[in-house]
Amino acid sequence: MVYAVGVSPPSSELSVLSCAGCGACCREQGAPPDYVALRISPHLADDPSFADDLARYRALTGEPLRLLNQYFHERQAGLRPENGVCIWFDAENCNCRFYDLRPSTCRVFELDSPGCHIYRRRQGISVETDS
User: What is the rounded CA–CA span in Å between residue 9 and residue 16?
Assistant: First the structure.
């Protein structure tokens, strides 16, 4: 079931206490979403709501930038699905390999939000309890 923004999941659904060992939200992104948006829609660079992401995107170097470029090359060649596992996701540790460089969408995604529960259900990841 999909919940409207601001609507909580049913009270029977348990609380998510930690992102540790999860990564459900990263398993359907393909690549850092705001950087993808800036790359495929350059006019967004003029949108003030993208200012922080634009600065982070322009500052990317090394492995993070190489992986992002690889993502776009593979997408263009039809070798990678658009919404597969994020290229920055470390599946072994279930976290972002470049956490400090992640875009705004990833920074503001809330633990235990309706979206969190939806991603977890779709990935077959149960929620944790404090009991």
Answer: 12
Residue-range definition of the domain harbouring residue 57: 24-123
Residue 66 resides in a domain = yes
Residue 69 lies in a domain: yes
The secondary structure element, H or E, covering residue 40 is helix 33-40
| Domain membership flag for residue 52 | yes
Residues of the chain with pLDDT below 70 are 1-13, 127-131
Residue 44 counted as domain residue: yes
What's the structural domain count of the chain? 1
87-109 pLDDT, tens digit each: 999 999 999 999 999 999 999 99
Q: Which of 96, 115, 128, 117 has its CA nearest to residue 32?
A: 96
Q: Residue 5 contacts by C-beta under 8 Å, 6 or more apart in sequence?
A: 114
The whole-number pLDDT of residue 125 equals: 86
Question: Which residues of 39-88 form beta strands (DSSP E)?
Answer: none
Q: Which of 6, 5, 67, 20 is nearest to 39 (CA)?
A: 67
pTM of the model: 0.80
